[in-house]
Amino acid sequence: MLVVYPDYINPNLFCISCSISSTLCAMESAINTLVSEFKTFAGKDGSSDTLSKEEFRSLVACQLPNFVQNSSDPAVIDQLMGSLDENNDGELTFLEFWQLIGRLANKHGGFSQ
Asked: Any idea where the EF-hand domain is (predicted)?
């Protein structure tokens, strides 16, 4: 599989300008984790490209219990998924799911909307 990076991204550079001694910088590691967890939960029904409602519920309950209030409430999951599912196909792509991550990070960081 050929991966094409925009000109401003060099996949061969490591975090040499900060004091982190690991191969990946913290933000790169966070992105790797988000992608990996999405694929793990999405792959439970055979397709790692989208999250079904049940996969989404499971991901939120397991990975975001302190960031999504009442995550065990089916109505909360329905409402949240509906707000993210742009094409109304009943599943979330990674880009649709990424909206949730942005909203949660924005709220957690205290940034204005």
From this structure: 72-107
